[in-house]
């Protein structure tokens, strides 16, 4: 079973990537990167709709042979991407959605934390949260 | 010979099945008529022609023999699912219909002989088709145009006779007159053939179906699939695609019900693949792409795990790859025929997956087929079969038709596997993978997936690298690198760079090698320290003209070849100067250049610092640092050079100025004297040549001007006034300031509208118009002696309110001495000032009735008042010189229009009002009548007489004019006295063209007694008026309510007393009696 969490900025550079297990990490990086195509497309499609009422959760971006890729985008266009093993049937849409929400909350907490100084890795706290989340599902 | 690969789809599977009809008796080589007939059949077959495949055969052609009909299936054990020849047989060998062409006219003199010959020909064909249901038809080629049916008696007689002789039904005999309308006849003929063919395939389907009842589930499992497939295939030939699809689906399910074992899994998969292909193809044809996709997914899920023999696992990967590729092809074909695909569901994904399986195949093959070179291909070849072809699809050539799951001959099996493995070894995997990847790239490009495209191109590049085509690999990788760089995916970039570095090493591409090394050593690279260290050492080797160490994990043979290349290159010393632009990536030295001040005066040297910091693991030393400027004359002043021994390059020495220690920032300071010709220009560092590029720009300023500029004015400016601004220039220079010039006006670069609405002039006495410029450039002022002061008034007119920036720019020439050199300097000083413009006053206009009540509309012919109110908003006192009401034609004044506000001085917040009595004649225009304009002439209050007067024109609002049927006005004194008679005269005026009945009544009031008509009904003629006289007798003092007059109009029920109140007074002041 494998699971991958990723956080990507409005300019699409990666802020945080983590994958379990760690082998074949490069492939996951590519999967996440390519999934941004779909995210971009979805965002631009949504841009035409009402911006305020839009749903942050983008749903299943596209299914690959072995993985499912889910996306989530915040109002400030920070993207969250999750890659889940296709065989993992325990993770339904609702679970994924709530996981994203958790990630988002945690991310906002970090960004709002005034005590993080320059040079300090802001994603340490995030890491703990992601770890515990991955523990639960894997 | 076995087919090239047993997972390739045979052509007969992939083509569109069409009814097969053979034409006999045509001599297409020597007979021009026959040739023309044949051409009409086969040339130019467009989509609207019936789907038949025609073939010309000789009359005595031997068709495949029909096997004797099985009467019982009881002892029959099938040897496989589908014979390899079966589809081809029914597509190209066994016709649905044989047509016998025969030249015979109805009036043929030797009819009997000819008829006999024809019957013989038909008989020969029948003989050859023994046992088959194939239809036979006869076409008579005739020279004469036939008469309409029924008219030619001989024809119908002879036709019946011929049918009889040939044992044909009347429907199978056709006549083809060889006339001008050949194609038309042919089309009619082939439509008839098509019907016959459909009947044939229908009977074939029935025949196959009839076998079903003899089958049993245990021994005939294979036959269930075979029959189902055949039914579906015949349905396709019959062009009944709906039923074909249905039957293929059943067949597909049956295939998966078969007992699978390692020995027959290939056969099952092959058949499943075939049937799946057919289903998907038909789904796309029926325009149900989602069904096709669903079927394909199901197929893949079912077959993914059916790997079969572990030693031949690469076969499974190849098969999977083929499945995806075929589906991608089908999908793509459907799109070309009009289907629309989307970003997340397009053929690209299938090609990509096909490529992925092809890669897996390559991996498995390299693992399973790494036989020693001593292993030779087995002899006799286990892949040879006696007939040269396989009997059944998907079977092993060395054990055809054996259904047992046990391997009867393990040795033979081993040899078979070995031969397959050895064959696989020779497959050019990379080529297959690259083709699939480039297919996928083309698709993703179409469906807006730039990142997916890049990813696939990286894979292609890597595949070229494995295929040892390093040049192509490098080209692809280099192309996509910037995309990853710009999006900051450093992990991915590092991986790409690593491959690119290997390629450049193996090709001994010096410049590329250095470029990639630089980037891999940089901060952005995610390589481990030891790797970076290795790369840095290699880089230094290259810089010292030595061959670098090979990159890890490279093909040994390629490394050998490249070492030779490197050696050659090293010997060609001298051509090794490369300029590498590092603007676009993050190299291993960070560089920052900084001028010490934003601008430098020409008499002070320009100073700047360059900071360098290395990110590589080892200290590195440069021989030279030089800075280039946009003015290249300065370059010579900014060079740091240091000679050192070759061996020192990695030595850590704190003395060496040019040695960069990792993580430490080193500062280099430079200074130079700027040239006077660069005064006012930008000096730009265009590049820092080390390895790094960076840009920054700074301005060289002029000498400090030694004059002062003062502005005297009274802001804010008022709209449209001639705003006076006095500029005072005082020279503090020690010598004469020559050629002093003043530029004054609106600072350029603001809103374009401001330029239109701002005028500047030197002459304030007369108002300027729009033609005046917004900026007065270079007004010559003359020379300024040291200490001399100069005043210059500037007048500005601002047409709109808002803030404006004004520029006052004094320039002059002066002689000055710098470091012993005398230079003539043009100095300048500028002063900007922001001036707000405000309205001098607000004008409020309102319409009131003669009773001073507010009116939202006026009544025709009834006088009303126009009141204007000028409220000063200016912080400075203003003088209203005069005012003037300019009425429009539709308004007439009741009395003289003279200004009451002439020469009034208004302080801030004070207001001046005046009022004009007007009348408006009746109009038809309901939307409103223009009133006119109000012109106010004013100026800023000032003791100076010369201040020009400004005329401000205010357009008065439109007013709605309404007509009323009756106008009442009252004549009464301005006050009354208690117990003194108060005569009141009411005038009732009919404003309509009708005679009006008027009811007038007066309601008593407590404060008055009165005499006069209390209630009366009267008539007023059009345009006439009636007077009513009353004597009121006030009883109480004070502001008393008058007895109220009520008027009721019979014709105008809308005329209310409310309206009346507007015209007549309701109250009067009653004084006490003296």
From TrEMBL, chain A:
Give the matching Pfam families: Sedlin_N
Task: Give the chief site where it resides.
Answer: cytoplasm
Q: Which keywords appear in this protein's UniProt record, sorted alphabetically? A: ER-Golgi transport, Transport
Q: Which domain of life is it from?
A: Eukaryota
One Gene Ontology BP term is:
endoplasmic reticulum to Golgi vesicle-mediated transport
Segments spanning the bilayer are none
Q: Which Gene3D superfamilies match?
A: 3.30.450.70
Q: Where in the cell is it found?
A: Cytoplasm, Perinuclear region
Similarity comment: family membership: Belongs to the TRAPP small subunits family. Sedlin subfamily.
What protein is this chain from?
Trafficking protein particle complex subunit 2-like protein
Species of origin reads Malurus cyaneus samueli
Its organism's taxonomic lineage begins at:
Eukaryota, Metazoa, Chordata, Craniata, Vertebrata
UniProtKB/TrEMBL annotation, chain B:
Q: Name one GO biological process term.
A: vesicle-mediated transport
Q: What is its main location?
A: Golgi
User: Which superkingdom?
Assistant: Eukaryota
For the keyword Transport, the answer is yes
State its location(s): Golgi apparatus, cis-Golgi network
Task: Show where the Trafficking protein particle complex subunit domain sits.
Answer: 264-522
Record-annotated Trafficking protein particle complex subunit 11 C-terminal domain positions: 989-1047
The cross-references to InterPro entries, in alphabetical order and at most eight, read: TPC11 (IPR021773), TRAPPC11_C (IPR025876)
- Keywords in UniProt for this one? ER-Golgi transport, Golgi apparatus, Transport
Q: Name one GO cellular component term.
A: Golgi apparatus
Its family remark reads:
Belongs to the TRAPPC11 family.
Functional summary from the UniProt entry: Involved in endoplasmic reticulum to Golgi apparatus trafficking at a very early stage.
PANTHER family (UniProt xref): FOIE GRAS, TRAFFICKING PROTEIN PARTICLE COMPLEX SUBUNIT 11
Q: What is this protein called?
A: Trafficking protein particle complex subunit 11
Query: Species name for this entry?
Result: Malurus cyaneus samueli
Taxonomic placement? Eukaryota, Metazoa, Chordata, Craniata, Vertebrata
């Amino acid at each position: 079973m494998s699971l991958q969490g990723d956080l990507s900025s409005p300019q699409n550079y990666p802020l945080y990537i983590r994958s379990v297990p760690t082998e074949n990490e490069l492939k996951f990086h590519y999967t996440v990167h390519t999934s941004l195509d779909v995210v971009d497309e979805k965002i631009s499609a949504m841009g035409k709709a009402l911006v305020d009422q839009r749903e942050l959760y983008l749903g299943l971006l596209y299914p690959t042979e072995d993985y499912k890729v889910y996306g989530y985008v915040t109002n400030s266009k920070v993207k969250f991407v999750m890659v889940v093993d296709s065989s993992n049937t325990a993770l339904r849409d609702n679970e994924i959605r709530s996981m994203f929400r958790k990630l988002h909350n945690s991310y906002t907490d970090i960004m709002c934390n005034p005590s993080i100084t320059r040079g300090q890795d802001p994603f340490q706290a995030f890491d703990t949260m992601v770890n515990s989340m991955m523990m639960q599902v894997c | 010979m076995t087919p090239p690969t047993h997972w390739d789809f045979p052509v007969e599977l992939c083509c569109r099945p069409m009814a097969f009809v053979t034409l006999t008796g045509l001599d297409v080589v020597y007979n021009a008529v026959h040739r023309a007939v044949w051409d009409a059949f086969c040339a130019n077959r467009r989509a609207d022609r019936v789907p038949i495949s025609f073939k010309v055969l000789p009359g005595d052609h031997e068709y495949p023999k029909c096997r004797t009909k099985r009467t019982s299936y009881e002892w029959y054990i099938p040897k496989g699912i589908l014979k390899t020849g079966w589809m081809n047989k029914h597509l190209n060998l066994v016709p649905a219909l044989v047509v016998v062409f025969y030249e015979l006219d109805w009036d043929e003199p030797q009819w009997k002989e000819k008829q006999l010959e024809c019957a013989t020909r038909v008989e020969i064909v029948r003989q050859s088709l023994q046992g088959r249901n194939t239809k036979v038809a006869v076409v008579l080629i005739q020279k004469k145009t036939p008469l309409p049916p029924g008219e030619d008696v001989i024809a119908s007689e002879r036709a019946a006779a011929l049918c009889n002789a040939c044992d044909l039904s009347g429907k199978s005999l056709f006549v083809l007159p060889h006339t001008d309308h050949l194609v038309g006849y042919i089309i009619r003929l082939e439509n008839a053939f098509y019907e016959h063919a459909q009947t044939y395939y229908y009977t074939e389907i029935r025949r196959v179906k009839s076998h079903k009842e003899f089958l049993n589930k245990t021994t005939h499992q294979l036959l269930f699939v075979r029959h189902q497939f055949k039914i579906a295939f015949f349905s396709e030939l019959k062009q009944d695609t709906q039923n074909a699809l249905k039957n293929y689906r059943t067949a597909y399910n049956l295939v998966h019900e078969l007992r699978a074992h390692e020995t027959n899994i290939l056969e099952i998969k092959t058949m499943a693949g075939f049937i799946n292909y057919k289903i998907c193809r038909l789904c796309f044809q029926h325009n149900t792409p989602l069904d096709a996709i669903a079927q394909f997914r199901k197929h893949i899920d079912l077959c993914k795990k059916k790997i079969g023999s572990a030693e031949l696992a690469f076969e499974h990967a190849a098969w999977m790859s083929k499945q995806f590729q075929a589906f991608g092809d089908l999908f793509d074909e459907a799109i070309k025929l009009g289907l629309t695909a989307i970003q997340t569901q397009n053929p690209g994904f299938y090609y990509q997956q096909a490529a992925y399986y092809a890669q897996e195949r390559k991996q498995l093959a390299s693992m399973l087929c790494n036989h020693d070179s001593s292993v030779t291909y087995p002899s006799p070849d286990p892949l040879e079969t006696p007939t040269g072809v396989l009997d059944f699809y998907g079977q092993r050539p060395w054990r055809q038709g054996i259904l047992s799951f046990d391997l009867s001959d393990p040795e033979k099996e081993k040899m078979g596997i070995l031969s397959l493995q050895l064959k696989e070894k020779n497959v050019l995997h990379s080529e297959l993978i690259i083709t699939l990847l480039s297919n996928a790239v083309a698709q993703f490009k179409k469906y807006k997936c730039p990142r997916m495209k890049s990813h696939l191109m990286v894979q292609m590049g890597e595949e070229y690298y494995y295929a040892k085509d390093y040049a192509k690999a490098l080209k692809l990788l280099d192309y996509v690198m910037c995309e990853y760089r710009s999006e900051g995916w450093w992990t991915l970039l590092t991986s790409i760079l690593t491959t690119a570095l290997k390629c450049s090493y193996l090709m001994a591409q010096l410049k590329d090698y250095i470029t990639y090394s630089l980037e891999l050593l940089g901060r952005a690279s995610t390589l481990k320290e030891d790797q970076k260290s290795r790369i840095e050492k290699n880089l230094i080797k290259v810089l010292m003209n030595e061959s670098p160490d090979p990159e890890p994990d490279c093909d040994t043979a390629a490394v050998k070849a490249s070492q030779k290349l490197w050696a050659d290159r090293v010997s060609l010393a001298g051509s090794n100067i490369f300029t590498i632009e590092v603007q676009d990536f993050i190299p291993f030295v960070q560089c920052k250049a900084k001028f010490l001040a934003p601008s430098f005066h020409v008499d002070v040297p320009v100073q700047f610092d360059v900071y360098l910091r290395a990110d590589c693991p080892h200290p590195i030393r440069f021989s030279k640092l030089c800075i280039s400027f946009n003015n290249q004359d300065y370059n010579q002043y900014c060079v740091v050079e240091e000679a050192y021994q070759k061996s020192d390059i990695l030595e850590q020495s704190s003395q060496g100025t040019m040695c960069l220690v990792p993580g430490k920032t080193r500062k280099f300071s430079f200074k130079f004297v700027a040239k006077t010709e660069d005064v006012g220009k930008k000096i730009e560092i265009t590049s820092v040549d080390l390895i790094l590029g960076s840009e920054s720009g700074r301005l060289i300023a002029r000498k400090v001007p030694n004059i002062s500029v003062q502005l005297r004015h009274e802001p804010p400016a008022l709209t449209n006034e001639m705003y006076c601004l006095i500029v005072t220039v005082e020279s503090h220079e020690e010598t004469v300031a020559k050629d002093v010039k003043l530029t004054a006006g609106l600072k350029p670069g603001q809103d374009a509208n401001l330029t239109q609405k701002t005028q500047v002039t030197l002459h304030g006495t007369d108002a300027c118009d729009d033609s005046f410029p917004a900026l007065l450039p270079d007004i010559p002022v003359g020379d300024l002696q040291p200490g001399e002061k100069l005043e210059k008034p500037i007048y500005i007119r601002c047409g709109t309110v808002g803030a404006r920036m004004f520029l006052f720019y004094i320039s002059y020439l002066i002689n000055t001495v710098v470091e012993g050199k005398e230079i003539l300097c043009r100095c300048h000083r500028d002063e900007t000032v922001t001036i707000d413009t405000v309205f001098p006053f607000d004008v409020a206009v309102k319409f009131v009735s003669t009773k001073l009540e507010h009116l939202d509309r006026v009544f025709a012919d009834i006088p009303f008042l126009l009141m204007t109110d000028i409220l000063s908003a200016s912080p400075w006192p203003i003088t209203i010189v005069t005012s003037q009401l300019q009425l429009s034609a539709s308004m007439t004044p009741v009395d003289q229009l003279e200004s009451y506000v002439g020469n009034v001085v208004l302080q801030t917040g004070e207001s001046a009002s005046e009022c004009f009595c007007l009348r408006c004649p009746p109009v038809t225009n309901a939307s409103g009548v223009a009133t006119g304009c109000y012109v106010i002439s004013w100026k800023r209050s000032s003791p100076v007489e010369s201040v020009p007067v400004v005329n401000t024109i205010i357009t008065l609002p439109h007013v709605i004019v309404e007509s009323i049927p009756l106008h009442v006005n009252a004549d009464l004194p301005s006050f009354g006295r208690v117990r003194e008679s108060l005569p009141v005269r009411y005038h009732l005026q009919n404003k309509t063209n009708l005679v009006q009945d008027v009811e007038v009544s007066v309601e008593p009031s407590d404060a008055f007694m009165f005499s006069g008509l209390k209630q009366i009904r009267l008539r007023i003629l059009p345009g006439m008026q009636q007077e009513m006289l009353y004597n009121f007798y006030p009883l109480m003092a004070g502001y008393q309510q008058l007895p109220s007059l009520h008027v009721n109009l019979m014709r105008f029920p809308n005329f209310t007393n409310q309206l009346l109140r507007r015209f007549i007074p309701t109250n009067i002041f009653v004084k006490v009696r003296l």
